[in-house]
């Protein structure tokens, strides 16, 4: 008999791990950091959920799911991303999808996006540099054209913001717990 749900995640600074841990608790799922995930073991689960943080438009570790679709063909697959893209901003999320997937790779995948966190002190030198570039590009926009999150990024530059919230995972938990379509 198949096991129920496995959550695999890749997190650099901890916010994706936090969501993965909440999901694992709320769904009674087994949890695997990507580095410890073995695809043949995951194929034994009815549902596999992959969570990846987004840096510079790229979903961390997503190639693991893409290259193993054949082995996971009998699993229900979900992907959740964690970043500062505003949830509900379809156009922005479509850009993330376009950057990470060929159109045919999207088939059979269900997506959710959750808000993450930023802590300037935890960033590598390279990430601080990128943040500086991001800050400059936001500052070039007229104030009224800046999104709420862009304003937060400016405010938090040099400090920290944390938008992680356990309530965000509820729709994904409900989907995972609902019986697979016949
Ligand atoms: C250098 C840098 C680049 C980032 N690029 C993106 C991005 O392209 N899209 C996005 O939604 N969030 C972006 N973020 C925000 C991260 O996705 C966010 O901090 C997330 O919570 C990180 O997850 P982690 O804590 O699991 O590493 C970026 C953050 C940094 C520091």
List the helices and strands and how they pair.
Blueprint lengths: L2 E8 L4 H13 L2 E4 L5 H4 L2 E11 L2 E2 L3 H5 L8 E8 L6 H11 L8 E7 L1 E3 L5 H16 L7 H9 L3 E3 L7 H8 L5
Parallel strand pairs: 1-2, 1-3, 3-5, 5-6
Antiparallel strand pairs: 3-4, 7-8
Bound molecules: flavin mononucleotide.
- What composes the largest sheet? 6 strands, mixed
- Per CATH, the class of the largest domain reads Alpha Beta
Q: Can you list the ligands bound to this structure?
A: flavin mononucleotide
> How would you name the CATH homologous superfamily of the largest domain?
Flavodoxin domain
What is the overall number of helices? 7
Would you mind describing this structure in some detail?
This protein is an alpha/beta fold and 182 residues long. The protein is 36% helix and 25% strand. The protein has 2 domains: 3-116 and 163-177, Rossmann fold, CATH 3.40.50; 118-161, no CATH class. The protein has helices at residues 15-27, 39-42, 63-67, 90-100, 125-140, 148-156, 170-177; strands at 3-10, 30-33, 45-55, 58-59, 76-83, 109-115, 117-119, 160-162. The strands form 2 sheets. Strands 1, 2, 3, 4, 5 and 6 form a 6-stranded mixed sheet that branches. Strands 7-8 form a two-stranded antiparallel ribbon. Strand 5, helix 4 (90-100) and strand 6 (109-115) form a beta-alpha-beta unit. Flavin mononucleotide binds at residues 11-16, 53-57, 82-85, 116-118, 123, 127, 130-131.
